[in-house]
Amino acid sequence: MEQKRQIERVYKDVEFLTSIRPYRNYLNVGSLNKTADYIYQTFREFSDEAYFQEFSVGGNRYKNVICSINTHLEERIVIGAHYDVAGDTSGADDNASGVAGLLELLRLLHNKKTNYRIDFAAYTLEEPPFFGTKKMGSFIHAESLYRAKAKIKVMICLEMIGYFSDEEGSQQFPLPFMKLLYPETGNFIGVVGNLFQRGITKKIRDLMRKGSDIPVYSINAPTIIPGVDFSDHRNFWHFGYNGVMITDTAFYRNPNYHRKTDNIGTLDFENMYSVIQGLKYAVLNL
Question: Are 192 and 245 in contact (CB under 8 A)?
Fold first, then answer.
């Protein structure tokens, strides 16, 4: 019964986010603000403190939404997900799934004793044309933490966690030899890190395996492999922090990536629930 209730909450969050019109891309600031306000309501209800981190780009004001629990602790884990979309798409997997996971993790963790302060961050301007620039919301946030000399155990980026397939051959890879290391069926979740952070990547993988029934695989790879740094964790790497991406592997699996067909009907909410449970366990036991 509890699992059903939690899945329904996650579904409701994705349903709201994907229903916003005009689409929540950088041109539609009003829609982004509506999204930010929705996230803020949950943040405010379940956290010690919640606030907007505002910044200007191209004459417009944009907002990250940030909250924290267990603020009496010094070292922190940052959990982040971007809430904007690419173009005129509803962005169910990319990245309403990640935002819904972020909100549910807060609900599940807010009254728990953790070993670290936990910061939850919903970012804007992750998508083109700002991707890879200092105008990304996550760059603004990571830079502010760096300037404040924040102690960060790891940044966990939720980037597309809702698309799964039991069809053989549904999982693609950037390099052919990877078929020898990973399943060709897209029914697992990935933990992606860079070459210098093998320890934390594998630890989160192992903890997620213990905390859920979904298969979890990890990879540590150079950024020359397309996709390894294709989300907000890249900006934490830039400032020397540990960072991993939790992902269904995006365009290596999901044919709806950055298309109008990325809608709520394509998501697997039971597997999303398993991912969230695995992340909850990982955060509690890091």
Answer: yes
CATH number at residue 210: 3.40.630.10
Encoded tokens for 158? 């939720």
Q: What is the pLDDT of residues 119-130, one digit of tens each?
A: 999 999 999 999
Whether residue 178 contacts residue 156, with contact meaning beta carbons closer than 8 Å, is answered with: no
User: What are the start-end ranges of the E strands in 58-162?
Assistant: 60-69, 76-82, 117-123, 152-158
The neighbouring-strand residues paired with 192 are: 219, 245
195-238: per-residue pLDDT in tens?
A: 999 999 999 999 999 999 999 999 999 999 999 999 999 999 99
Mark out the alpha helices in the chain (DSSP H runs): 2-19, 29-46, 98-109, 137-147, 198-211, 233-238, 269-285
Alpha carbon distance 49, 70 (integer Å):
10
3-state DSSP call for residue 241?
Answer: coil
Q: What is the pTM of this model?
A: 0.98
Rounded to whole angstroms, the Cα distance separating 191 from 157 reads: 10
Please report how many Cα atoms fall inside a 13 Å half-sphere around the Cα of residue 59, on the Cβ side.
1
Please report, rounded to a whole number, the percentage of residues in the chain having pLDDT higher than 70.
100
**Structural domain of 14:** 2-285
Order of strands, sheet of 243-247, starting from the edge strand that comes earlier in the sequence = 49-57, 60-69, 117-123, 76-82, 152-158, 243-247, 189-193, 216-220
pLDDT at 28: 98
Domain count, the chain: 1
Q: In angstroms, rounded to a whole number, what is the distance separating the alpha carbons of residues 183 and 172?
A: 9
Plot region of 50 (φ>0 → left; ψ -120 to 50 → alpha; else → beta)? beta
